[in-house]
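dude i think i finally got it to work??
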Amino acid sequence: MHQTDKAIGILGGTFDPMHFGHLRMALELYEALDLSRVHIIPTRQPMYRKQPVATPEQRFAMVECAVAAEPALVSDAREINRPGPTYTIDTLIEMRAEFGETPLCLLVGIDAFLGFASWHRWEEILQHAHLIVAHRPHFHLPTTGIVSDLLKQRLQKEIAYIHEHRAGGILLRPITSLEISATDIRKQIAMGRNPRYLLPDSVYDYIKQHKIYSIT
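look at this
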């Protein structure tokens, strides 16, 4: 086990492909929360959404391309390398064993948070990490139900909390609203259009080199 002084961020997703929306969210939260770094972890086999088009290895390679020039963001292959269905709780337990008492911060968007009660073993997640909920202007939180109850019990106002406690808090943080869709990027590429300025040039170069998403 080893420990760092600052909390570690964790951003998971299919990243099919990784784009500037993902990257901007990770970097803004890294800076706003004074994290030591953010681990970008592509999922191998998502359980609650359509299966990715690119292979796990291709999606990890695209993450590597995307974060190569930004030391604050670290590509992490642990879910790609773990066989079977991918569950967040398994990743958090593994990282907790690896990083000891260092605080872990799971970075999620507001939409994912609203569905939190449908996650596998969701009741255990806050035992291992804080939840950092990135939101855009004019977002709405439920006033009843499990998510509402969690916020009443766990919502924190001070950033210091996530560094002073290993897990258990929920923080709401505004981020720049970049309405970029991986689905739309894949469609544009399939139609022969140029998706530049929606994702890093290095990622687009990898996509072209390996003919991912192309219909030809």
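Residues 13 and 24 are 14 Å apart (CA to CA).
im so relieved honestly
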